[in-house]
Amino acid sequence: MVNTDGAKKGMHNYGCGGIIRDNGGNWICGFAKGLGVCSVELEAKVVVNMLKKEVGVPAEGWSLCKRIWRPLEHDWKVLICHIYRETNVCADMLAHVGCELGSTMMFYELCPTQIARFVIADAT
Questions:
Q1: N or C: which end of the chain has fewer CB within 10 A?
Q2: What is the domain range of residue 6?
Q3: What pLDDT, in 10s, does the model give residues 28-38?
């Protein structure tokens, strides 16, 4: 399962983040990406469609999408769908981390300690 979210801090600090889980809701990997100053805000459902490769990905998002798609190339059953922020705490927290990263991207193989306790709660 892939959970993603975007966040905005202040007037111009944008970020995104996400988590990839196995079918039991357990952590596989996650990411946080600073987007810096943005002039475009995307509807969450558009992002879902990009990750499902149903619509094109803008050049600015290509590198990030490639890093998300790479673990999904395994022989796994993958479902990408929209969920609301209240049940998406881990991705929301990672998106807020992204707001602090400028234009840097962090890829987490191990779950960051600040969100570990939310991974199980979000999985249900």
A1: C
A2: 2-123
A3: 999 999 988 77
